Each structure stands twice: as C-alpha cells, then as structure tokens.
Hints:
In chain A, 52% of the residues lie in helices and 19% in strands.
Amino acid sequence: MTRFEPRQKLWLEADGRLVMSDYRLRLLQLVADTGSLAQAAAVMGLSYRRAWGKVKELEANLGFPLVRSEVGGAGGGHTELSGEGRNLLDAYRRFGQRMEEALQAAYREELSPLERCPENPPPGT
Amino acid sequence: MTRFEPRQKLWLEADGRLVMSDYRLRLLQLVADTGSLAQAAAVMGLSYRRAWGKVKELEANLGFPLVRSEVGGAGGGHTELSGEGRNLLDAYRRFGQRMEEALQAAYREELSPLERCPENPPPGT
Lengths: 125, 125
C-alpha cells in the first residue's frame, strides 16, 4: 500500500529573522531542565560556544533575554529561563502541538483517501 | 512591536521518500497549465533535464505516473497530468490550504498574545 506520511517543519520569525524553531525549543527546554547551558549543549552534541551563540542570536532578534545566568558559586554556574523566555517557550510548544494535530487531521481528510492497496499483494497477506 | 511571523514547510513522503512538496506542486501545476514540461521548467528557472528528473523521481517513489507525454506532432510535444497525478495534486493543494489556515489560527491563538508594543514608540506614532 502507498501510505503517505505528512511532514512539516515549523519556525517563527520576527522582522524576517529567526526567533524560535523546534531545534532551539529543545535546546532551551534542556537549559530549563538541567539548569545549565553546558549540559544542554552536551545533550544536543553542540559545543558550549555554539549553543551560547544560538541563544544570543535569538535574544538579539527578539529584543529580550531568554535566559538568566549566575556565574560561579559552590556548584559552578547556573542558567535558567527568564520569565519572557518561559512564556515564549510555553506558547511555541502549544503552537507546535496544535500544528501537529492539524497536520494529522489535514492528512486524514485530504490525503489518506488516495492511499491504495497493492494490486498484487504478496502471498499470505 | 515584536510581531511574530509563523512559518512552515510541508512535504509528503511514502516509505521515507519524497512524493510531493510545494515546489514540486508548482512545477506540476505549470505542466498542467502550459501543457509542456519544457515551458514549466523555463518558468521555474530549471533545465528541462532537471525538471524531468524531479518528475521521474516522484513517479518512482509513488509507483505511478504523474504525467503523460505525446512526442512530436504539429505543435511539438505535449505533456499533461495523468488522472492519478491530477488527484494527488488536488488533494495536496487542499492539504496545503488547510495547513496554511491552521498556521494562522495557531499563531493567532497561541503566539499573538505575546506580541508587545514598543515601550518607547517613535515620535509622531
């Protein structure tokens, strides 16, 4: 049978510049979960420098901070989401969930009726 | 004001292989409109060979023909969509329209509440 798989890639721009994507959502969620940009970067297989660059690029494009960092202290540095960063992440996650549901509904109603059974199914099926 | 622009890219796979995308929809729609793969390719800025390759790749992945060609004759060759090709294009176009509507709705409900007016608007606005 020809079974279609609908695919989508989502992102968010402001003034034509990237301000959020699924990839960056994951990085920032890992920062929130681990309290550390270094750990979040390691999980994503990114250098600290590259992960830091991605966060700072989004912040520059947004015009507000996504994360707050405390340097040093007993347990080393600590990074957490800003209030605005948390709000944007939550909203973007809900946006993505709605779009995933929409993708499945649009596929089911428009494309799945075209899927066909094979004219010559293999023996025993 | 930080005004967000939601963006999406859609495509369709079967068994992990590309069978339709917005770009290929446009190419095939131009074939239907002009009756000529050469003209469709020219409008898209593609070589004939490259446009032909894109159509044949989709057909191989789908397992059925998207276009039918007649060679030669008084006005040169003629290419038109197959019945199955027409059905797939129509369904994919409706799928894309639904997803565009879903994108705007999801943006409006989840992301637009985060948009802010500038704290210091320029004089005269």
